[in-house]
Design goal:
This protein is 61% helix and 0% strand. The protein contains 4 helices and no strands.
Length: 82
């Protein structure tokens, strides 16, 4: 049983490696919009502004899960050559 657990963990780790897919301009825009939305939430008390965490985090880490799902990438330097 423990052998199966180890194999599953190794397979999961291999598949969960994030390839960077957010370019520089996209990254700056995401961070600015994220900070602006969070500031809006703090100033007005509107909880909807906390959605700004999503673009802020994707901009900081240069990885967007939605881009990965659809095979999109704005980072020219990050693309791996096949």
């Amino acid at each position: 049983m423990y052998n199966h657990v180890v194999v599953l963990i190794l397979v999961h780790k291999k598949e969960s490696v994030m390839q960077l897919n957010v370019g520089d301009i996209d990254r700056v825009l995401r961070i600015v919009v994220g900070v602006a939305l969070i500031a809006f939430a703090v100033v007005t008390g509107n909880l909807l502004g906390w959605i700004g965490i999503v673009p802020l985090v994707t901009g900081i880490f240069k990885f967007c899960p939605a881009y990965a799902i659809f095979g999109i990438g704005t980072c020219k330097e990050c693309k791996t050559e096949s």
